[in-house]
Amino acid sequence: MNPSSPPTRSSLFVVMLCFLTIAVDGYDLIVYGATIPRLLEEPGWNLSPASAGMIGSWTLAGLMVGLLGAGPLSDRIGRRKLMMAGVLWFSLGSLLCAIAHSPQALGIARFVTGIGLGGVVPSSVALTIEYAPRSRRQLYSAIALTGYPVGGVLCALLAIATLQSQGWRLLYGYGALYVLILPVMWFFLPESVSYLLDRGRTDEARTLAARYAIDLDEVARDEEEHRRTRVAAAGARGYRLLTSPEFRSALLLFALVCFCGQLVVYGLNAWLPQLMRKSGYALGSSLQFLLVMQCGAVLGNLTGSWLADRLGPKRVLVPFFLIGAVSLLVLSQKPDYVWLTLAVFGAGLGSIGSVTLGYGYIGAYFPASCRGSAIGAAQGIGRIGSILGPMIGGWVLGSNLDHHWNFYAFAIPAVIAAVVVTLIPRAAPCEVEYVQAKST
Fold first, then answer.
1. Which domain of life is it from (predicted)?
2. Is residue 3 part of a domain?
3. Which residue from 30, 57, 256, 279 could staple onto 155, CB 3.0 to 4.6 Å apart?
4. What's the CATH number where 200 sits?
5. Which residue in 134, 132, 161, 156 sits closest to 145, CA to CA?
């Protein structure tokens, strides 16, 4: 970086733009679960719980398609373009949901929306990490990923205020308004410095480094080290580098953690309001539990990232997943209102909070030349869990199984995720950086 060119913007500015972008994923996470009670009552649709779960899974199938394609595109065309395309696609998909005239049309619209969302999180996490100071990568990633539960909180609040009086279509219409942030992204969202260097666009990288107080020499050294890695992997980048012996096992373990975490997150968010209604709570109070869970996710994300920068992400993720599992076991016992609220809060902390921390762990673990692909691949494979989550919840809810299994079905994968995290190799770039930051 040229010392004569003082920085004109903080890297936190990039983080906040990524925060706004990731919020669309959080909004979409909650909107379907919040509207299921009304969709089940929609005149002429005759939706069963199993059919509603299938529509929820179509969204996640679209997400899986988008994620698997978005990761390599992010590494090929850059983070900035893909993030803007994802926001535009999401807004159009939300509009289609708002005007859907049948369950089949809603399912197709949800699938289309999911494809657009696939481009949002991998690029946002990668860009955040690439603009973050080394000793604060987990914290900056967590701040950006807090957009995920904050978007969910916004949706829950809107649902509480409008769902009973205005119906379900308005909530999807609000999602379509997200297109209004595109002009802000067009003028102010920068491209990744690491990506520009990797593509030989050194002058552009130097300009951005000066603007955001990034040590360009340090980034260049990292890129040189990553090039040596690619030479060992036959010049690979993206998916080819990910599937090389150096990263293959770690990628599979991260994907399994994402699978378990997404199964819990999407299953709970799709069915928690209906589970609470089945337990005797009114629609309004059931939506309040959804809001409490998002608040738990926000706290878990921020406190967990603060701990991860000091202790390492593995030492934080394991207990967080276990907190989620224990909270679900408490919910299965129908406790009194105070313990019920605490358990819902803990479920949010241990499910959504854990998943978002895992995104930061993945982003810091892999080099810039395959970072977007790594996040997209792990999430894309993990989205199989998010597809199964609403389906499992609908099947359990519609079966004759004891009500405890409504929560056991999600507590078990949370425990499995905690175990798998312990198996991720320790010789990871993010943990080396953590040790170096701690020693300085």
1. Bacteria
2. no
3. 30
4. 1.20.1250.20
5. 132
Structure tokens at 366: 């892999």
Residue 88's domain spans which residues? 11-439
Q: Is residue 219 assigned to a domain? A: yes
Asked if residue 343 is part of any domain, the answer here is yes
Tell whether 418 is covered by a domain: yes
pLDDT tens series, the chain, 440 aa: 444 455 567 778 888 888 888 888 888 877 887 888 888 888 888 888 778 878 877 877 787 788 777 767 777 777 888 888 888 888 999 999 999 988 889 999 999 888 888 777 778 877 888 888 777 777 787 788 788 778 888 888 888 888 888 889 999 999 899 889 899 888 888 888 877 887 778 888 888 888 887 777 777 776 665 555 544 444 455 667 776 777 778 888 999 999 999 888 878 877 777 766 666 666 556 667 777 887 888 888 788 888 887 888 888 999 999 999 999 888 877 777 788 888 889 988 888 888 878 877 887 787 766 777 787 788 778 878 877 887 787 787 777 777 677 788 889 999 999 999 999 886 444 444 433 444 44
Report the domain count for the chain: 1
Buried b or exposed e, range 360-397, using 16+ CB within 10 angstroms? bbbbbbbbbbbbbbbbbbbbbbbbbbbbbbbbbbbebb
Answer yes or no: pTM beyond 0.85: no
Residues in contact with 171: Cβ distance below 8 Å, sequence separation at least 6, in sequence order: 31, 34, 35, 155, 158, 159, 162, 163
Identity at 200, one-letter amino acid code = G
The residue count of the chain comes to 440
Assess contact for 329 and 410: CB atoms under 8 A.
no
Q: Are 215 and 353 in contact (CB under 8 A)?
A: no
